[in-house]
Sequence to fold (83 residues):
Amino acid sequence: MALTERTEIGSREILPGGLIQVRVDTIIERDGEVVSRTYHRHVVAPGDDLTKEHPDVQRLAVIEHTPERIAEFKRKREEARSL
Fold:
């Protein structure tokens, strides 16, 4: 009766402004049968550090997070802070 735990990227979604929403699934298995699955979501914004992100998320960010999109995101964030 061996328990194992693994994580996998359950979904990746591109939101307005180039934000990437990532769902990470944590799966617990007993002798190969799934007994538990939990989810955690986080968002990767243009300009964020990608070094700890899954390679699939890094590939999406390379496409979506162009220099122009990063500059626009930072500009909008500064505008929101000044309100």
Notes: The CA atoms of residues 28 and 36 lie 5 Å apart. The chain has one domain: 3-81. The mean pLDDT is 95.
